[in-house]
Amino acid sequence: MFSDKEISRFAKLETPFYYYDLALLQNTLSNCSAAAKVYNFHVHYAMKANFNPRVLEMIKATGFGADCVSGGEVKRAVEVGFNHQQIVFAGVGKSDREINDALDQQIFCFNVESIQELEVINELAGLKNTKAKVAIRINPNVDAHTHHNITTGLDENKFGINSWDLPQCAEVLKQSENLEFIGVHFHIGSQITSMDVFKNLCVRVNEFAAWFEERGFIVKVLNVGGGLGIDYHNPEQQIPDFEAYFKVYHDFLEVRSNQEVHFELGRALVGQCASLISKVLYVKNGKKKNFIVLDAGMTELMRPALYQAYHQIDHLSGSKSAEGVKYDVVGPICESTDCFGKEVALPETFRGDLIALRSAGAYGEVMASHYNLREGIVSVYSED
Ligand SMILES: *Cc1c(COP(=O)(O)O)cnc(C)c1O
Q: What integer pLDDT is reported at residue 147 of this predicted model?
């Protein structure tokens, strides 16, 4: 919910823009940090969820590490000032150049997703006369029960090393002089809302960690990835239940005294702290449908077009009349999937009214594109 003061501020600004509630972000970070400290868990922020500079600055200040999925993200994490020993680098397709740059930065760990990648990292580290620290990203075949397009831990997914390849993986690790094995890594999907899914993951993590230990490896790091979801249907439910989340891992993960547990949270930390604020350009009343055409589209918030994601749509202007009219809320882009919601019940709406697309802090601004030669999106902060 926005205050009258915020809404009158929005009315004076050029739309569309992302509006960041930095106080909420701070509360979310503090809450997560405190909940993790109870069990001595390490949190890395999954930078791909949002790399807005103000957001990154606050996350770094919280003491979290950075979870990167490209050379560009590793570079940004270093520039922003994340501790190199808290930077991890995952991704199925790390290029030689990205690997070399990360080796130069002496990052904490490569989360390795194929046997071939292990061999390449070993070779490149050898050329630099250094050792690369690696964790094996294992595909545990655990169903995340989330949207098909954001599931990553099933046999059919491209991510991680499958269990049947682990014997060969162990061989390569033993023969590779320039690799230092530090542990196992998992990430089974995003927007996961059932704690049972994480429980199932714990069972698999225990099995795989034991598998490596039985073969003489020291498993120092158990990295269980991220994936904790937020409540898109209830944006006022702003801070995810980090306590319950970490407790599941505390209860079901078998952690030895020399082991560290690492997490890579993205969406749960930043999802609720931003809204996309847009103005109604046109209202089209058809025979069967009424359309609201916004000045923001899939070029500013791609999630609905990409995976039918739901964002609550709030009408911020004028009449607080009963929600009487049903509209399809669409953007201006020349694509039929450029639609934020169908048959959305809203007060009667007019040209110039303000609309907020809620819970847009994760995978929102970062996915903005210049398709249709759109100009790009700006950010506005609650603190300014
Ligand atoms: C995207 C990603 C995450 C974060 O996922 P969230 O659902 O935003 O928590 C964590 N780890 C890896 C390897 C990822 O690719």
A: 87
